[in-house]
Specification:
Layout lengths: L1 H20 L2 H4 L1 H4 L4 E3 L2 E14 L17 E14 L2 H4 L6 E14 L3 H4 L3 E13 L5 E12 L14 E13 L5 E14 L9 E15 L2 E14 L11 E10 L4 E11 L13 E12 L17 E12 L5 E15 L3 E14 L5 E3 L2 E4 L6 E15 L4 E13 L3 E5 L6 E5 L2 E13 L1
Length: 452
């Protein structure tokens, strides 16, 4: 029973946990850092934020109560952060350095002020850290070393409340970068290693490692249009004793990115993905279909970025898009995700910043796994694939009273619309407990942030 609760919670939220838990000012530093403090050839960006708010469904439990009573809480979150990097182009001027680097770390400490007995905890903390080292940046041939680490504090919907899905995730990658003079062509080839470690013994079977070989590039064959490509081969394996299937997913996409005008950009990529799950433990099904992304974006002021380059939130814009891909799951082998989305970001008069991201996705799960462990058999009647609808939305607004002080508000909503119910089949003949997958969760916080 407990393993199914872990698996369902992890599958429902892991893919969105980074978006839900990482504050906006940590995700896009270009738009949310201050002017920085210069020290020789490096610049420093310290910061600290304090927020208070409400969480409507802390355990992210099913709406019908089959996973236990819904628990809400009022919380206080404090987030100190610090980044250091070589000088930006505005301060440096001239040729790029022979070696560039940037590094940052942030601690998100949450103190729960209400309902702590039901939550079985008073506090949690998360960590985000990253490092980027560039050798010969901007030269015809360069090399990058990239590392990201996060600790996510995430409870499961287990009725005892003490168990959790706290996990440490780290990815390190090295890549060669070829850049043709004039910027007509840039291409990179890299290797990455990822490790996801679940801290609780009862969830350790979800721990996994992933090796990845990837390449991506951009060929600007017209002044405002580029051919873009990305492809990858991954090798994912779970910890010893896990009943989850290992896999070797392959992805390849090719497309066009270009400017229709100074303020309107389009991007369209299409390709193929195949999952290659190990079927020696069970016939889990396979994904073997089209993947891709399409987006049209309008920039309210100024010019759009170069073809094939991502837009920062400092560029006020409105975008409509659609993505199709497949991802690993924890109670089914995988799920397909077809998501339509809208994003809006705007910075008014360098004072008021707004970021909105909302989407609706069709989530098609493969047949639930039939797993035996600890004397408990986990299955769903008929073990048929099923499709849910997932709705997500986030809003961040900040008023910058000075160049280093801001007052902000954050709202987040996540909901899974589902008619599916999985059954935990116990060791006693005929015993079963249906577990619904439908849930809704809303979080709202307001606070103050100092940044330099």
């Amino acid at each position: 029973m407990k393993r199914l609760l872990f698996a369902c919670t992890a599958s429902a939220i892991t893919v969105l946990s980074s978006a839900a838990n990482a504050q906006v000012w940590l995700k896009d530093r270009q738009s949310t850092e201050g002017s920085g403090i210069r020290s020789g050839d490096v610049e420093l960006h310290p910061g600290i934020a304090a927020e208070a708010g409400y969480d409507s469904n802390f355990f992210q439990r099913p709406s019908d109560g089959s996973g236990g009573a819904l628990q809400s809480t009022v919380k206080l979150r404090v987030t100190p952060s610090f980044t250091v990097s070589t000088l930006t182009a505005d301060r440096r001027g001239g040729e790029p350095p022979k070696v560039s680097f940037s590094a940052g770390a942030a601690l998100a400490y949450s103190e729960y002020l209400t309902n702590t007995a039901e939550l079985k905890r008073n506090r949690d903390f998360g960590v985000n850290a990253d490092l980027a080292l560039g050798i010969a940046p901007g030269r015809p041939l360069g090399f990058n070393i990239l590392d990201t680490f996060s600790r996510t504090a995430q409870p499961s919907l287990s009725a005892d409340g003490t168990a959790g899905l706290n996990r440490d995730e780290n990815r390190i990658a090295g890549e060669f970068v070829y850049t043709r003079p004039g910027g007509l062509l840039d291409w990179r080839f890299g290797y990455g290693f990822s490790n996801s470690y679940f801290e609780e013994n009862t969830a350790s079977y979800l721990s996994n490692v992933k090796h990845e070989i990837y390449t991506r590039g951009r060929w600007k064959f017209l002044p405002r249009t580029a051919l873009v490509y990305d492809g990858s081969a991954q090798f994912q394996s779970y910890s010893n004793g896990s009943r989850l299937p290992n896999s070797t997913p392959l992805r390849t996409r090719v497309g066009l990115a270009g400017l229709l005008s100074d303020r309107l950009s389009v991007m369209a990529m299409a390709g193929w993905g195949a999952s290659f799950y190990d079927t020696s433990k069970a016939d889990v099904g396979q994904f073997d279909s089209v993947i891709g992304q399409a987006e049209i974006r309008y920039f309210f002021g100024g010019s759009a970025p170069e073809a094939g380059q991502a837009a920062s939130t400092t560029m006020s814009s409105f975008a409509l898009g659609f993505t199709r891909d497949f991802l690993s799951s924890y109670f089914t082998a995988f799920y397909e995700r077809d998501r339509g989305y809208v994003t809006i970001s705007s910075l008014f008069a360098q004072r008021f910043f707004v970021s909105i991201d909302a989407g609706v996705a069709a989530i098609r799960y493969s047949a639930p796994l039939n797993t035996t462990s600890d004397g408990v058999k986990l299955a769903a009647p008929g073990a048929k694939p099923f499709t849910d609808t997932r709705i997500d939305a986030s809003l961040f607004a900040e008023y910058r009273a000075t160049s280093w002080l801001g007052f902000n508000a954050t709202g987040q909503f996540l909901s899974e619309l589902s008619n599916a119910k999985l059954s935990t089949l116990g060791t006693t003949a005929g015993s079963s407990v249906p577990l619904a997958l439908q849930f809704s969760r809303f979080q709202a916080l307001a606070g103050v942030r100092a940044f330099w």
